[in-house]
Amino acid sequence: MGNINTVDLPICYLPAMPKLDINALISALQTRTPGAFHFPEIYGPNWDQLYIGDKVKLGHAFMDAVRAGKLPGVTDTGSKKDGGRLYHWAG
User: Confidence band (pLDDT; 50, 70, 90) for 17?
Assistant: First the structure.
């Protein structure tokens, strides 16, 4: 076996995945009129800056939170429209 050449590569740091902030989501919901909505509508303006993988994970975490009853007044309609799952806010 010959010598193994190594190259020092810079370490890449990926930003941590954002956490689902239930309190912030409840506050956003309370400013809305009752009716159907998509999760990104209440997540906030930073949604478009998230990595696609983070969007998927956050969307799933939101669906799990809704189904677990952590967001009173929000139900999963079980349907999708315009590329995303629809939820209903009772107000």
Answer: low
Owning domain of residue 70: 37-89
Tokens of 18: 């954002």
Look at 82 and 33; give whichever has higher pLDDT: 33
Global pTM reads: 0.78
Q: What is the distance in angstroms between the CA of the first residue and the CA of the last residue of the chain?
A: 71
- Nearest Cα to 23, choosing from 71, 64, 68? 71
Q: Are 64 and 51 in contact (CB under 8 A)?
A: no
**Longest Cα–Cα distance in the chain:** 71
6 occurs within a structural domain: no
